[in-house]
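User: My collaborator and I are trying to settle a disagreement about how two of our proteins should look. Neither of us wants to argue from intuition anymore, so we agreed to look at predicted structures for both before our next call. Could you fold the first one, then the second, and keep them clearly separated?

Assistant: That sounds like a sensible way to settle it. I'll keep them separate. The first protein:
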Amino acid sequence: MQDGLVMVLCLLLGILLDVGLGEVKKFHPLVGFGNLANAIERRLNTPTASRWTGALAWCLAVLPLVALSLLMLVLAQRFSLWLAPVLHIVLLYFCLGLRSLHEHNAAIATALQAGDLPEARKRTSYIVSRDTQDADEAYLAKASVESVLENGCDAVFATLFWFILLGGAGAVLYRLVNTLDAMWGYRSARFLRFGCVAARIDDFMNWIPARLTACTYAVLGKTRLAWQCWQRQAPGWPSPNAGPVMAAGAGALGLALGGTASYDGITETRPPLGEGDTAKAADILRALRLVEGGAALWCGIALLSVLFLGGVIHA
């Protein structure tokens, strides 16, 4: 029980550190990793590159850093009883994006509520790849809510899941995997073969967290509608993990998301998500509260689980 309680306290403190400080403004480790991944990709992603080349690139980018994290934790555990927990907390802090998610999307909501469409368009362009230059409030609010729901899984819940399972090294492993998927996991001519392994590993590591995230959204929102949208709409999405997360999240909020979106001047019609009202500025804040409430719920469940299991064992 003692070790489990320590890890739950590390979980709580890592979240509080992220909420209190936000992401590192300079020399963020994930930014450095992105630069490393770009250098590896430029060197290995040649016109003749295969999936095996992509697998080698993935190993070169991810495995040394995960091994370094594990080595640091093992050494910290040997030298001091308190140093290892501190390191777990710091690693989780670097991997979480709860406050960052709030800051980026709350800024869009504030601009929309003030009627400042140019500022809202600029802010939205920072977090999505779709075109925003001529977008209206409904389009921008929809893009922001969808980003909150999807990144709530990637930047918050999946990170917490792997931290709970494997500690700080697990959080590091997941965030590196997720970052590589965001960089290489495209079905374009450049990345179709090279990024295939990165995309499949991310799908694997997100499979359980995505469904736990969908359950979290459903529990904290319109439960029945969230479940119905998850079952009906998720199979229509090409991503096996984004579908359940976004469909359940849209249903939980009672919003109609999905539909048309423009990318590089090309309009794409995507499957519907959720059911109900058109998204507005206030709905961005509702989506953020859904994610933040979910993080609090996970912390509560983790703490109660450790206390209950400890009591059962001692009984």
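The second protein, kept apart from the first:
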Amino acid sequence: MAELLRTHPLEAWSTAFADLPGTVAVTAEPFVATVDVRLGTVDAAVSAALGVGLPTAPNTWVPAGSGRAVWLGPDEWLLTSTDETPEELEARVRSAVLPFGGSATDVSAQRIGLRLTGARVRDVLATGCSIDLHPRVFGRGSSAQTTLGQAGVVLLGLSDTGDDVAVLVRSSFAGYLADWLLDAALEFTHDS
């Protein structure tokens, strides 16, 4: 049986990202195992079973082993892992949450991650996003489901200074968003 080769949907944009001059850098993040978790109640027993305390404050994320646990709603989280296969992560999380009435679904192919770094990241994002991204409001550990350009995304604040943001976008919108980011970044490629 032939093994299927996995290719990143943004592989064709890697040169354009690398050639982007100035104060904003865009990179496509590698694939990660991702599981959507639905769970009615989060308590110490659930946290112990999962090995991470799921964030209960709206619009936040926390480190979770080699990945992240992202709050998506009052009863929904996104868990990622860089050192487990999607099947391993789903099986582990499902066995942890099932006794508490929860569910876990592998959604690894659903979203692609982009990382924006540099002094003008907030400026680039502000051209197509209406939420307040000032570091006082959107620092490390913050998350937001919003639109960027016209694509639905999840933003994750990775620094307290606002110069490091992860953008999770549906795979089918990844090319559109890559083009949009390259265009939006042109205005901010050199310090004024």
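Some points you might bring to the call about the second protein. The chain has five helices and ten strands. The radius of gyration is 17 Å.
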